[in-house]
Design brief:
25% strand, 7 helices, seven-stranded mixed beta sheet, alpha/beta, Rossmann fold, 208 residues
């Protein structure tokens, strides 16, 4: 990620932490789908964990859970929440894939929620994810896909970026995202959109 991206998320971290989940029903469906794929012995890495809400919900399903974000202010809030909740098998850290800053894997599962569309180089990121997974390990993600007809929003997003109100993002389609994941050496096991409009694409992919 770029320094500009980290600066944006650092700036909005406290406000972001106070926001309510936009679609709680879709969020709960996603959590249930993820839990169905987790095992008690798994070591899990969540990329772009933000303020740790999802990590705190899922950590009890696995042996060890690492929540990672490249924005230190997000991690500071996540650690406050972890301390309050007294979750012992969960740790938070700053850093990003590919720069040697993350805890050494391999992991059984890598999670990425609302983050893949923000990556400046998805192909490189997926290659790094594959390297950080055990053979047969899972990449589980959920990604806003605003390609196709939703590209009409691009001018609005561009203006919001100039005003410091939005991060840089890619307008992906579900098909494009799945092609990128397959090209990195994964098999797609499960897909779905929760919600359907605009599509937020849930994908379970297994390292070959």
């Amino acid at each position: 990620m770029t320094n500009d991206s980290a600066a944006f998320w650092n700036k909005v971290a406290r406000r972001y932490a106070g926001m309510t989940i936009r679609n709680p029903e879709a969020y709960e469906v996603t959590l249930d789908l993820v839990r169905a794929r987790l095992r008690p012995e798994d070591h899990v890495l969540e990329l772009g964990c933000g303020t740790g809400t999802t990590a705190l919900r899922l950590a009890d399903a696995v042996a060890h859970y690492v929540g990672n974000d490249y924005a230190p202010e997000m991690i500071a809030i996540a650690e406050e929440k972890r301390t309050d909740a007294q979750v012992e098998n969960l740790v938070f850290c700053t850093g990003q894939l590919g720069d040697g800053s993350l805890p050494k894997g391999p992991f059984d599962v890598i999670l990425g929620f609302n983050v893949l569309h923000l990556l400046p180089d998805r192909q490189s990121a997926f290659a790094n994810i594959a390297q950080s997974l055990q053979p047969g390990g899972l990449l589980i993600s959920k990604t806003p896909c605003l390609g196709g007809v939703y590209r009409l929003l691009q001018p609005l997003v561009a203006v919001m970026r100039l005003m410091g109100k939005a991060p840089k993002l890619s307008f992906l389609t579900p098909a494009r995202l799945e092609r990128d994941i397959k090209a990195a050496g994964f098999e797609i096991l499960e897909t779905g959109s929760y919600p359907k409009r605009p599509p937020s694409r849930f994908i379970v992919a297994q390292k070959l």
